[in-house]
Amino acid sequence: MGMTVAQVLRPVVDAALGTEVPVRIDCWDGSSTGPADAPVAVHFTSRRALRRLVWAPNELGFARAYVSGDVEIEGDLLDALTRFDALADPDRGPGVHVGRDTVAAVARAALRLGALGLPPRPPAEEIRLSGRRHGQGRDAKAVSHHYDVGNDFYALVLGPSMVYSCAYFEEAPGAAYALEDAQRAKLDLVARKLGLRPGLRVLDVGCGWGSFVLHAAKAYGVTAVGVTLSQEQAAFARAAVEAQGLGDRVEIRVQDYRDVPDGPYDAIASIGMAEHVGRSQLSTYAAHLHSLLAPGGRLLNHAISRRPGPPGDPKGDRTSFIDRYVFPDGELHPLATTVDVLESAGFEVRDVESLREHYVDTLRAWVGNLEASWDEAVRLSSAGRARVWRLYMAGSALGFRSSRLGVNQVLAVKPGPGGSSGLPRTRAELLDGAGSRDLSDQRPVVAREAVAPATSLGLLVGSALGRSLRGPLAARRDVGRPAFR
C-alpha cells in the first residue's frame, strides 16, 4: 500500500517545526497528520497548494494558495494566526528551522506527490501595477484596486455605519456599545480636535465615502470639500450628500490631493490617506497641505504606523501579500517620521494620540460581519476576494494587538502671526470642542478609507508554512505596509 499524503508531508513538518506541534494537517486524499484535537487545522485541498509553495516558498506563495482555495484554515482565523505566530517565534514556540534536513524533506515530498511542474497561474485577485511608483496615474489604479470592489460589498463588511477606519471605543464593545457607536465617536473626536464650528471651511483628503465631511457639515455647520481618487466612493458620497440635503455645504470631487488648488481652508482632515502617499512623496504631501491652510489652521493626520527601523526595499517587497492583493504601493512610516515631516513643512505638532487597541476591536467587528454574511460577500465579489479580506483583516488585527502596527492621530497647526496657535491651553479644553454642534440623532451613513493594512502575515501563516520551505522572512517589511486605516 502506498503512503498517504499526510505521511509524505509529516517529515516536512517535523524538520521545520519539530515533532510536537499542535497543528493538524488535513490533506486532499482524506488523510491527516497531527493531533486530532489540535486547536488549529490546515486543510490542503489540492496538490496545487504544494506547487504554489514550491514556486513561491514565502508569504506570497501561501497567500496564493489560500486565496485560490487550495489551502483552508478551519475555525477562528485570528486565533489560528496568533497560534502560528507563536509557533514561528523562537522565544515562544519551536521556531522555524530551515536547514539541509528541511530542504531535503521538501524535495522528497514535492517529487513523491507530483507537486513539481509549471507554476500555477496566480489568482485573478492578484495585481501588479505598472508605471512610475506614486505617479498620479499609478496611484489612481492602486486606489481603484482596493476601493472599487463595490459599495454593496463594503456595506456588508463595515455594517450600518459604513465607516472604514479605526473606530473609537469609549466603552467596551458589546451589545450595549456597538461598532456604529464607536465609529460615530471617532468622527466626532476628529471634529473636536480640529475645533470645528459654523462658518469654517474644511478639506478632507482621501475622503472615502464621505463620512467625515457629512458629519462635520451636519453636526458642526461647516462647509466642506472631500477629495477621492475612487469613482465608486465619489458616486456614493454624492448621493448621500443629496439625500441629507447638504448639497449647498458639501462638495465631493474625484481629484488627487496634489491638484487641490483652492485654499485657504481652516481645517484639513487626512484619515487613512497618508499610507498611500509613499515616503518619496511624504514631504510634498505635508508641504501642499500646509500651503492650503490659513494661518492658525489645523491638520488632523490619522495614519497607521510601523515600528522604527529600515523601511526595506522602496520599490516594494516582491513577496508581499498586501502589495499584490490589498494595498498596492502602500507604505507605512514610523510615527517619528510623520512628526518630522510635518514639522519640517512648517507645522507645529500639538497633540499625538494612539488608537492601537481600538483597531483590534474594529477589525474583529469587520471580520465578524464578513464571516456572518460569507455567501453574500462571495456573490457580491468573488470567493477569492472574500478570502483576501478575511486574511488581511485578521492578520492586521494580530499586527495591531502585538504592537507591530500602530495607528495615531497627529494634530498639527500652521502657526499664525507671531507664532500664535489659537489652540486652547489644556487638552481637556481641546477635546471639549470649540464648535456649536448638534449630535442629536447623528448616524454616520457613509464611510472612508480603511486601514491598513498588516503584512505581519510574513510572521504569521507565512512564517509557519512559507518559511518552512525557504527560511525565516526578513523582518524588514512584515510591518511596513497598510491593511486599513
Automatic annotation (TrEMBL):
Which UniProt keywords are listed?
Lipid metabolism, Methyltransferase, S-adenosyl-L-methionine, Transferase
Among InterPro entries, the record links this protein to:
CFA/CMAS (IPR050723), CMAS (IPR003333), MeTfrase_dom (IPR020803), SAM-dependent_MTases_sf (IPR029063)
Listed CDD domains: AdoMet_MTases (cd02440)
Domain (Polyketide synthase-like methyltransferase): residue spans on this chain: 153-415
Q: Which family does it belong to?
A: Belongs to the CFA/CMAS family.
Return the protein name: Cyclopropane-fatty-acyl-phospholipid synthase family protein
